[in-house]
Amino acid sequence: MSEQDFPEDEFAARTQAAQKAMHSQGIDALFFTTEAEMRYFTGFRTLFWQSPTRPWFLVVPVNGKPIAVIPQIGAHLMASTWIDDIRVFSAPHPVDDGIALLADTLKGFTKIAMPMGRESGLRMPLRDFQRLRDLTNHAEYLDGTGPIQSLRMVKSEREIALLREICGIGSEAFARAPELFHSGQPLNEVFRSFRIELLKQGADDVPYLVGGAGQDGYGDVISPPSARPLQEGDVLMLDTGATKSGYFCDFDRNFAIGQASDAVRSAHETLVRAVEAAAEIARPGRTCADLFQAMAKVLDQSEGDVGRLGHGLGMQLTEAPSLTGFDETPLRANMVLTLEPSLALGPDRMMVHEENIVIRDGSPEFLTVPAGPDIPVITR
Amino acid sequence: MSEQDFPEDEFAARTQAAQKAMHSQGIDALFFTTEAEMRYFTGFRTLFWQSPTRPWFLVVPVNGKPIAVIPQIGAHLMASTWIDDIRVFSAPHPVDDGIALLADTLKGFTKIAMPMGRESGLRMPLRDFQRLRDLTNHAEYLDGTGPIQSLRMVKSEREIALLREICGIGSEAFARAPELFHSGQPLNEVFRSFRIELLKQGADDVPYLVGGAGQDGYGDVISPPSARPLQEGDVLMLDTGATKSGYFCDFDRNFAIGQASDAVRSAHETLVRAVEAAAEIARPGRTCADLFQAMAKVLDQSEGDVGRLGHGLGMQLTEAPSLTGFDETPLRANMVLTLEPSLALGPDRMMVHEENIVIRDGSPEFLTVPAGPDIPVITR
């Protein structure tokens, strides 16, 4: 019944690429508990992950198709994907939410890799994981973070098409800012109107919308909105992660309410110049650290407190790699990245700016319609 | 800057209740990595959890206020909560995303409890968790799932007020169905219009919206929408988890497009009668299993494949307890529950219905405006 986001060969290609890496590293099976990895290899997409009640498991053997070990409630939807081997358990269950079935599925494998490193988590109870380890004590569990992140970093043209679409939707929504926002509007109403505009422009969902507003900058970039009305001289920033078919945009825009101070104008121009400096050199052969340094040089500040100046983008709002001074990941064609420079304007004031690009052979492709150096002024 | 969802005494009361349980069980500290628990004890609310890059840690000692051990990027927002002891680390960091600082924070504790059981997960890298265990090998890590779930199950009147508000918003949005939905409308456009309506009615966000449509029922209850147009004779079901100040509603409504078959009319009436049978007996002294049995008796089917007929509701779309035949959790006043009976109508066809209630001394309070036995027919 459910429509697939990609044809079967997309998932087959991902699986084969993973299996090639597994072969070369002597890994028998990959084991996943998390939404992004489950969806990456199967196409299984549902918001039901919002419910923490039931665990979901995926096993990617070194040969053959992935095996889904999932609660009965997901069997119908999983049957609409390319997966053939779907093993279901009843959940919630009095004593065993799928662990015996999962252990049985893993019994033929001795070197099992799973994400254990940076950006990963374990979406199953620790107690059940320990029981799984006990039931499969013939096997060694290895850290598979590196190979999986390396695979997911480089997007297919089909993935890029979805990312281009949602970035275009975000750009269209931001273009309507002069009609949507006005002085005196409470910040939570600004958020509400922008969420609605994103949906009207074609976003499926808006899982992420943060921002701030304040005189000559804002205090942080992760807060939910207050009811404080926009005031003359405010800088308003909205940062959105909207989705289309499960793929995210992640970029922001700044607006001056009524007027912008020289400090704000200058900061905005500097942020845009920092993005341009990174985009100028962003191509295969350079590294994440190179992009970080290119931006840091324009910003002329120490690293600041955000920790990085951009990151990977795709099925998650943020993905590997990180644009930091220590991430030496080489850029490869079809990586999708955010460029996200930030500037401190005072002890409790900052500004941030963000664009989304694809690394190409040659100049990068901008997925977002890039902001110009002049901060837009809302005059309503 | 950021407005708090509750006054400080709400968080102090939660902390004291947890500490009372810790005292009685000989626990020195609670340790959390997940959004709901962090927010429950601190009030720290942000959509930034969408980014998997950085871990967030909370330690609740047996005496005194909770201690936040968090990335620098969250320091400003955390400072707006009632928490005084905020220990920050730089993240992403080349080699240590906060583990040394966390270990130092935990060094005075020998019995540390954390969620390890049903419905829990570990939102930090497994490798880092192992390193934490190594650095704090003086301490014993215990499963604290039970005490925390027991605490969170019973809501304060302030929490219930937010839940009442978002359930009211959902009810208002569903009441507009005759104007929003019509025969020939693609299902993904049905979803889009309903999301927008929820926001217009005052929801902050719609993290969960699933559903289905099909002749005489739908195939599952977790799918994203297809582009298939609604047809005469379809049953349309929408199930929404919208939020207000971080609290969820979780209920659904069924609509017949143009006309309803006798089987659909009868199934809808049976589902509503099942809810009524559970609500009839829902009060302190009864158990979750009692509610399950009351519904199962009306449904006159075996448990089916959904696994349960309702669950707790609050800061998460689904919370403990579960309305199953094996969950003997006694009902207590101010528990908020969903009643969610489902019926199989054929090998690939089902219907589900859901309401949200508060357990009170006496009859329960309905937070949703309850559906009547007659399935509403959309005649446009």
TrEMBL record, chains A, B:
Residues 14-154 form the Creatinase N-terminal domain. CDD domains: APP_MetAP (cd01066). It comes from the Bacteria. PANTHER family: AMINOPEPTIDASE, XAA-PRO AMINOPEPTIDASE P-RELATED. This is Xaa-Pro dipeptidase. The lineage of its organism: Bacteria, Pseudomonadati, Pseudomonadota, Alphaproteobacteria, Hyphomicrobiales. It is an enzyme of class 3 (hydrolase). The keyword Transmembrane helix does not apply. One of its GO terms (molecular function) is proline dipeptidase activity. Residues 162-359 form the Peptidase M24 domain. InterPro entries: Creatin/AminoP/Spt16_N, Creatinase/aminopeptidase-like, Creatinase_N, Pept_M24, Peptidase_M24B. Its EC number is 3.4.13.9. It comes from Roseibium aggregatum. Keywords: Dipeptidase, Hydrolase, Protease.
